[in-house]
Amino acid sequence: MGGTADVLPPEHDSVSARLADSQCDTSVAIFKQSWSTYHKLLEVDFLEHRALYTALRAMLLASFGAHATPVAMLDLGCGDAMQIAASLRQCGAPGGELRLACYTGVDMSAPALDLAAEYLSFLKPECDVQLVEQDMKEFVAASPSQSYDLAFASFAMHHLSLDGKIEFAAQVARCLKPGGMFVLVDIFLKEGEDRVQYMKRYRTNIDEAVTRGIIEAGEAETVMAHIDEFDFPESLLEFDGLAKGAGFESADCLLTDSKEFGRLVVLRKPR
Ligand SMILES: C[S@@+](CC[C@H](N)C(=O)[O-])C[C@H]1O[C@@H](n2cnc3c(N)ncnc32)[C@H](O)[C@@H]1O
């Protein structure tokens, strides 16, 4: 695990062991299997999250490090929150360089939220941590206007349809305070690429993980079946139009990984 501390926090080993030991029903068993595969890829930085989260931390400190008041943060599709927890801690949250007043994480997966409670526990009591088991579209639609400084979604928004993303982005913009930001770490299509071409490209990528012995062939099939069912990435150009239509100034890409799957994208709400 050496060298992954910037992506996997110190609690990762104990959480991982506890998850392996836990008794579970079918839905939790499916969660455990995909969590385990995902973490094999993370441990060798196969998905290049280290660069994306390094850029995220720099962006958070540059934008919110000198914030006049502690930041109110909303994490949409937070999952186990493992990576954002590590980044927030490294930024000094809750009371250091990045001051965090509250963190609200929303996800449909109860087992993921159980883990999130553990990874985020270091924020308490200074920061008010709320974890909500709900569809993130419904959550933002029901949230008061201008209530957050920072909305964040990592590898979650690509699960929505294009219409779903358009409505979701508009609701997130409404929930942000003037000058607030919607920060995305997510997968995107290459410009001019369609979903079929994307899937072929991802197949080649995941086959490489099998060839390198990072995951088993069966795990690769599970990953591809999940992507086929749930992943609907857009191009950055499409996203820029969607962001402007939702009331953001633009969608600025701060970093693209070397394989051109993952990007760090910032949507700013006008002041
Ligand atoms: C790939 S995981 C990413 C989790 C976490 N943000 C991260 O970066 O590690 C996607 C997460 O989005 C959640 N999700 C997908 N669609 C959702 C929705 N409509 N409402 C709430 N959560 C959703 C899933 O349950 C899952 O935990």
From TrEMBL:
This is Methyltransferase domain-containing protein. The keyword Methyltransferase applies. Residues 74-180 form the Methyltransferase domain. One of its GO terms (molecular function) is methyltransferase activity. Pfam families: Methyltransf_25. GO terms for biological process: methylation. Keywords: Methyltransferase, Transferase. It comes from the Eukaryota. CDD domains: AdoMet_MTases (cd02440). InterPro entries: Methyltransf_25 (IPR041698), SAM-dependent_MTases_sf (IPR029063). The keyword Transferase applies.
